[in-house]
Amino acid sequence: MNDGSIQSTGSGHKSAVKRLLLEAAFVAVIGALFAFAANRVSPRGLALSRNYFPEETGRFMLPIPPASQPHNAAGTNAPTFDPAQLLAAELKAKGLQLIDRSQALQLFHDPRFKQNIVVFVDARDEQHYRNGHIPGAFEFDPYRPEKYFDAVLPVCQAAEHIVVYCNGGDCDDSETAAVLLRDVGIPSRKLLIYGGGITEWITNGLPVELGGRNSENIRNPGK
Amino acid sequence: MNIGQLNWNRIALNLSALLLRWLLGAAFLYAGLSKALHPVDFLKLLRQYDLVHSSLLLNSIAAALPWFEIFCGALLLAGVAVRGTAVTLMVMLVPFTMLVFHRALAIQSALDIPFCAVKFDCGCGTGVVFICHKLLENFLLLLLSAWLLAGYGRQFSLRFDLIKSKPADIGLKR
To answer: Domain containing B124: what range?
Structure first.
């Protein structure tokens, strides 16, 4: 053929594949370097050596019970699955105590709350905290504890009851925060986990503070 | 078919190839950014897969993956090393899709519901999704990557092939 066209030969095809794989490897290596560098400089970046989950809970790895248990209404001997009981037992094993909404509300209205003898700790991130938290609650993101230790630790050391909460439901950040506080020396008998969390609190129309702590920007103040 | 019609067809093909390259790039950029902005949330979601037991490894994956996706998305948008990036994305997408599929199966068997009724946050950057939608989305992303790998989407590329072919690699017949 003498038409001046360019055609790939067998060896040309092989080397094209080689070039492609080399290019992909190049993208992968440069991409990985970029990724770690970006994580390092990002203010929200993760600390690679930190164990963010000091005690593996696995509480809601699957957010549902095994199918064989709850559907057993026909009188078999399968145990009844109660997430609250299960959670309470798990927390008890760690020396922590689960409380419900009425207990949390009782502590919220306790006169000692004003004197920081009863303390509420919000274990969600800053954005969620600012969008609404239990009035007077201290911000304590357990994944960025270094930011909050200075403000939270002295208060927790002086308090008699520390109510820790997060979103509720399958959120285990309150537990992570409580374990963290326990591990830095706060006696576990003081630590109470409000399992319903902010979701249950809001659903029941209870007061919510917007913005920073003691901003006095309160929704539903009367409850 | 006349020459004019051929040209229009080619222009339409080129334009759609360009738009699809940008679409794929934007999809990865968005997915990466949504995770990079909330790395702890992504870390928690990743932990649910029970992939690795070393916290260093888990943190490394959660820290690097979002930025890696941003990097690949940016390369596709700019048109740099497009085919190499497409290969890299395919290599990532296949195991991720399998992981999501396995987790969905586990949820399905635990809940005893139809497979397509399973919905959860797979950590893909799009929040809670129905599994069948997610699998379809990943299949489309794979298809788009394969399309770019075939050499489409060269228009407005800064450097489509990062490693240029040498004349010796091509049989030049005259």
So the answer is: 20-152
Contact A20 B109 (CB under 8 A): no
Total number of domains in chain B: 1
Q: Taking every pair of C-alpha atoms in chain A, what is the biggest distance, in angstroms? A: 98
Judge whether B164 lies within some domain: no
Nearest to A62, CA basis, from B109, B96, B131: B109
Q: Are B39 and A45 in contact (CB under 8 A)?
A: yes
- Test B64 with A35 for CB contact under 8 angstroms: yes
pLDDT in tens, B97-129: 999 999 999 888 888 889 999 998 898 988 889
Count how many pairs of residues, chain A against chain B, have C-beta atoms within 8 Å. Answer: 143
Amino acid occupying residue B39: P
Q: Are strands A218-219 and A208-209 parallel, antiparallel or unpaired?
A: antiparallel
Q: Which residues contact A208 (CB under 8 A, 6 or more apart)?
A: A132, A133, A134, A135, A198, A201, A202, A218, A219, A220
DSSP bridge partners of A191? A162
Which of A27, A42, A50, A175 should be substituted to probe chain B, the one whose Cβ sees the most B Cβ atoms within 10 Å?
A: A27
Tell me, yes or no, whether B14 lies in a domain.
no
Facing A50 at nearest CB: one of B59, B72, B165? B59
Residue B158 lies in a domain: no
Minimal Cβ distance to B107: which of A42, A51, A62:
A62
Residue B3 lies in a domain: no
> What single letter denotes the amino acid at residue A218?
I
* pLDDT digits 0-9 by tens, A113-154: 989 999 999 999 988 999 999 999 999 999 888 889 999 999
Q: Is the pTM of this model over 0.90?
A: no
CA A110 to chain B, closest CA, distance in angstroms equals 34
**Is the CB of A15 less than 8 angstroms away from the CB of B163?**
no
How does A114-138 read in b/e, with b if 16+ C-beta sit within 10 Å? eeeebbbbbbbbeebbeebbbbbbb
As to burial, measured by CB atoms within 10 angstroms (0-12 exposed, 13-18 middle, 19+ buried), residue A35 is buried
Q: What is the ipTM of this complex?
A: 0.89
| Interatomic CA distance for residues B92 and B86, integer angstroms | 10
